[in-house]
Specification:
globular; single chain; 4 helices
Length: about 110
Amino acid sequence: MQDMSELMGKVVDVGDSDFDLATKSSEWVLADFWAPWCGPCRVVAPVLAQVAEEREITIAKVNTDVNPLTSGKFGIRGIPALILFRDGEVVDRMTGAVPKQSMDSWLDRHMS
């Protein structure tokens, strides 16, 4: 895993072993619980990449197929599931793929 201070504004893959470190590493972290077989997950991925470029936020991608502990810890039942963290604490959650405009307004409610 990369130096955590360099993650702001990036999309990174995290797993069960480094999830807590990743969510505490930046002020704002958006955890994306996904799986390779999930169509809606593939739809939301480019939206999240845009969000990472436009905001001071780290997108932490968690593949639920290979990281069952983290998925279980947060009670993930459907994917894509997004959990917004600030300083390591859960701020809000969203399930399902949404268009960029909806994602921006959701983030704006918490980040502004």
